[in-house]
Amino acid sequence: GQQLNQSPQSMFIQEGEDVSMNCTSSSIFNTWLWYKQDPGEGPVLLIALYKAGELTSNGRLTAQFGITRKDSFLNISASIPSDVGIYFCAGFLIQGAQKLVFGQGTRLTINP
Amino acid sequence: IAGITQAPTSQILAAGRRMTLRCTQDMRHNAMYWYRQDLGLGLRLIHYSNTAGTTGKGEVPDGYSVSRANTDDFPLTLASAVPSQTSVYFCASSRDFSNQPQHFGDGTRLSIL
Q1: How high is the pLDDT of residue A2?
Q2: Does any CB of chain B come closer than 8 Å to the CB of residue A1?
Q3: CA dist., res. A76 & res. B88, Å (int)
Q4: Residue A39, Cβ neighbours under 10 Å: how many?
Q5: What does each C-alpha distance from B105 to B10, B78, B86 come to in angstroms?
Q6: How many C-beta neighbours within 10 Å does residue A9 have?
Q7: Dihedral of the alpha carbons of A56, B107, B96, A62, in degrees to the nearest 10
Q8: Parallel, antiparallel, or unpaired for β A61-65 and A55-58?
Q9: How far apart are CA B7 and CA A58, in angstroms?
Q10: A43/B98 touch (CB, cutoff 8 Å), yes or no
């Protein structure tokens, strides 16, 4: 099936550092979503992007919809301990049924 | 607080037994989904429903069935559980079956022995 390549798979950073992760695909998407999942909970929507080139912020989080429609990135500025978790990108393909395609996730660990 | 409620939170089940995972949403969303999450495989769609009364197959539908008798409820049934169905199951919903964001419940952790 369709795949999203999410990188990095894991990150180990110091509190206060900025974080960047991205998703790429060979396919074109019309929507990009970024989720965060804490242990024992379901994914929670962080940011939704609907237009190529769109840049959207949610507090310390910023995400962009790539102009080629094949990629997206998520940045977290000045990381804090509660940012720990797994971050997933997801997208809807521009062609075909409206089924959400997920990346494999980026596991973020923060050293205080 | 509006959202999705899944039950049970966790379950240990003997192989061959029948099990129904429950999912209820109070957001009046038209579309609902069931995913399983496995280490290294991410989230995979099992079944979906784009509106009450209709369902469709996802990526990994074998061994599972669903029904959508009304807008709020979307139960997932394992007719005869097998160990490979050990997983964390998430129910999700979206306003409609389009590129609207999906909102997830907190999951059911199911172990088949």
Answers
A1: 56
A2: yes
A3: 28
A4: 7
A5: 13, 19, 18
A6: 11
A7: 0
A8: antiparallel
A9: 31
A10: no
Instruction: Name the B residues in 12-41 with CB < 8 Å from any A CB.
Output: 33, 40
How far is Cα A76 from Cα B50, in angstroms, rounded to an integer? 34
Q: Give me the residues of B, 90-109, that contact A with CB < 8 A.
A: 90, 92, 97-99, 101-107
Six token digits for residue A89: 């990108």
Count CB atoms within 10 A of the CB of residue A21.
Answer: 23
The residue type at A73 = F
Note whether A78 and A18 are within 8 A (CB): yes
* CB atoms A98 and B99 under 8 Å: yes
What tens digit of pLDDT does each residue of A47-92 get?
Answer: 999 999 999 999 999 999 999 999 999 999 999 999 999 999 999 9
pLDDT at position B3, please? 93
Tokens of B25: 């949403």
Contacts of A90 (CB under 8 A, 6+ apart): A4, A32, A33, A34, A35, A100, A101, A102, A103
Tokens of B75: 């139960």
* HSE value, Cβ hemisphere, 13 Å, CA-based, for B8: 9
Q: Does B86 touch chain A (CB under 8 A)?
A: no
Helix (H) or strand (E) holding B57: strand B54-57
| Helix, strand, coil percent values for chain A (each to nearest 5) | 5, 55, 40
Summarised one tens digit per residue, pLDDT across range B68-79 is 999 999 999 999
